[in-house]
Amino acid sequence: MGLAVVEMIMAIEDEFGIELEEDEVQPIETIWEMHELVCRKLSVTPRRSDGDPQPAGELAAGDRDRGDRSPLPRHP
User: pTM of the predicted model, to two decimals?
Assistant: First the structure.
């Protein structure tokens, strides 16, 4: 896990008052997956930017090129 990802995880933990375990964040590849994890930790329903609930693991029509599906930075 690269420094940028570790810093992002620490910022998320501080902002939302949660703790993210390494085994929880290791498989995450997209911003949306991180969003879903944070929502689970906060016991809230993940929502798209238009406010509609987003079924876990599904892309809604038109979401395929959205920035919130961007891969997280990976470093070897």
Answer: 0.62
